[in-house]
Amino acid sequence: MVAGEIPGFLETVRLALRLNPTIYTTLPGTAQGLTYAITIVLLASISESLGQSVVLFLNRVRPRRFVLALSITTLSNVAGYLLWTLTIWSVGNLLAETNQPWSVVAVIVGLAYAPQILAFFELTPYLGNLIWGILFVEHDRNRRSIALRLGHGDMAGSAHLRAGLDRHPERAAHHRPADPAPAKAAATPRCRRPARGGPK
Predict the structure, then answer these.
(1) Residue 92 domain-assigned?
(2) Residue-range definition of the domain harbouring residue 112
(3) Residue 196: inside a domain, yes or no?
C-alpha cells in the first residue's frame, strides 16, 4: 500500500486485520474511511448474528422471533461500537487533551471490528467456541492497540505527561518526588539515655 493512497474495501479489511499502521493513519479524517468503518461494523454485526443463528434453528424458534433475535444482536453490536467510540473520544479529549475529532476516532474504532467479520465461523461444529474466543481476543487486542495509538493508554498518557512537563518546566516541580532525606532523618530513632541505675 502506498502512503496517502486510500485502498479498496477488501484491502482495507486485510490491512486492519494485520494492524498495519498505514491504514490507521490514512483513512481517519476521510469520508471514505468513515464509510469503510461503518460497513465493517455492519458486516461484523451480521456475521455474528449468523454465527448465533444455529442455536435459534435448533430451538425451532418462530420466524418472527428469529428475525427479532438477529436484529437485536445486530443493533447491540452497532450500539456497542457507538459507545466505544464515544467513550474513547471523551476520555481522550477530557483527560489526555488529544483534541481528536469524533469522526477520526469513529474510523479507527470501526477498523478494530475487522476480526468480527469472521464471526460466522461460530457455525463450525466443535470448534465454534474456540474460534469465537480467538476472534474476541483479537478484537480486544485491536481496541487496546487503538487506545495506545490515540494516546489514551497508560504508556501514551505517561509520554503525554512527560512532554507537557518538558514544555512547562515550572510544572515539573509539582511532579518530582519529594526529597527522601528529610523523611529518612525523621525515621531515624533518637538515642535514648540509659536508665538510672543501669550500666553506663
Answers:
(1) yes
(2) 9-175
(3) no
Per residue in 24-43, pLDDT (tens digit) is: 888 887 888 999 999 999 99
Percent of the chain with pLDDT over 70: 55
Calpha distance 88→146 (Å, rounded): 9
Q: Is residue 186 in some structural domain?
A: no
**Number of domains into which the chain is organized:** 1
List of long-range contacts for 52-59, beta carbons under 8 Å, 24+ apart:
52/122, 54/122, 54/123
What pLDDT sits at residue 185?
47
In a domain, 190, yes or no: no
Q: What pLDDT, in 10s, does the model give residues 139-151?
A: 565 555 555 555 4
How many C-alpha atoms does 134 have within 13 Å on its Cβ side? 12
List of long-range contacts for 45-48, beta carbons under 8 Å, 24+ apart: 45/73, 45/74, 45/75, 45/77, 45/78, 45/116, 46/74, 47/116, 47/117, 47/118, 47/119, 47/120, 48/73, 48/77, 48/116, 48/119, 48/120, 48/122
